Amino acid sequence: MTMGRLRCIGSSLHLKEIYGTGFRLNIFSKPGRLEEACQSIEEQLMAGKDYRRIDKFTNSSTFEFQLSNVPSSSAHGQEQENGELSTIFHYLNQPMMFPAIEDWSISQATLEDVFIKVVTQGEDAIALPGIAQYTA
């Protein structure tokens, strides 16, 4: 729904692919080791990616990131596709690389994320012309 109109333009998966904000990586650290866990994720998995840390709790944190297909070198000197989900799974399944992490999960953007993005873009398109007349 945007500008007062409700439209259905595809399946939920199709909408997530077009309007989704990427993926979310949830990490759950061992007690008292959240900062260590987040730092290792940022250095080893998120380097070179467009990401942001969106939630932080006592023993868990969430990173939101986009996937790209630009080749780059990993921190371990191996060639990888930057942002390939398989590469992220490969590294997270090696507990010795992330000793502070107890558990993790990856999820795709939710339909709520898609809805918020579409509505926000619609509101921005309406609001910006009105703002421009007051700033001139």
UniProtKB/TrEMBL annotation:
Q: Which domain of life is it from?
A: Eukaryota
Gene Ontology molecular functions: ABC-type transporter activity; lipid transporter activity
Give UniProt keywords alphabetically: Repeat, Transport
The keyword Repeat is assigned to this record = yes
Q: Name one GO cellular component term.
A: membrane
Please report the name of this protein according to its UniProt entry: Uncharacterized protein
